[in-house]
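Teaching soon. Invent one.


***
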Amino acid sequence: MLDKGLRCTRKNPQLAYLAPTYGAAKRIAWEYFKMYSDKIPGRIVNEAELRIDIPRPWLGDKVRFILLGAENPGSLKGLYLDLAVLDEYSEMLSSVWTEVIRPALADREGGAIIIGTPKGNNHLFDLYRYAQTDPDWFAALYKASETQVVPQAELDSAKREMPEEIYEQEFECSFSAALVGAFFGKEMDLAEKENRITKVPYQRDALVYTSWDLGIDDSTAIWCFQEIGRELHVIDYIEESGMGLDYYVKELSKRPYNYGAHYFPHDLAVREIGAGGDSREKTVRDLGLKSIRIGMKHSGASFMDSIHKVRMLLNKCWFDADKCAKGISSLKNYQRKWDPKNEVFQMRALHDKHSHGADAFREFADQHRDAAKRPDINRLPRTAGRKYNIFG
């Protein structure tokens, strides 16, 4: 940052280092900034604001270096930046980059260095994958076993003392290691190892079941399943936000599937404020959806029971890697809520962007068990020329 700032050709360049919190930024980088800038003539250090100004008399301006925390993204808006370093980006909100820092770099045509330790397939993973394909970006991954920065004896000791998934994440930069606290991490990791996340084609002689999680102010998610022998083929996934129920029904109608039951959560029966106070159940029926099943509300033991059902189900699932990519990420990253006071994971889920896909999958696991015992509804009769309503 010091080198880039001093060489920057723009007037009064400004460069920022961001950590997940302001306190972390100070602990991680402040002493380094002061040490490496100590011999530069005219340097001005502002301890209260974690800021260093260095005059450039040959250009008649100064370069400013600032340390910031990412815990309140809104407070960072309005900056202009020539370079930003986001350290431990996986611990920040994704909006720090997309809504604050990226726009702040635009008018200066600035650059960014984004650093982090993997934490499942979250926004750091998404950006890393993007950087691998965009020629304007450089992407690199440095495993402790390859860099030789940490002595091998120390790595061996850490591997013996740490849970395997934490060691793989912290030292080997593994995005696929089961996320600590993840409900389905091991099952999804096994699916990958057994190559059950691949291309899974739709089979016309088997019904397609859908399972939903309904969002009001956030996302609605829908899985599409087929039972093929003893296997469960997960062939499609839909997730959007800010759209009405008619949008999702139309999306299903566009697909060439022969539908069986549609599994909804308990809140399908809730009456909406608009539309004459009709329930959402009436709305989807009026839109043409048939064979609707409504589940029960979960809490406590019943929630953990549904988690167990999903785990059992995942062991026989085959996922379409392309069509279900977003849903697969949700299952990998659906995790317990952390109780920092008692330093334990709670027996309830953290509500975040991964909740919708995981909750929709739980709905299927809860409701489809009884239907699975009825072979008459699982496979279409082979009647030549018979037409089927796409909604079952």
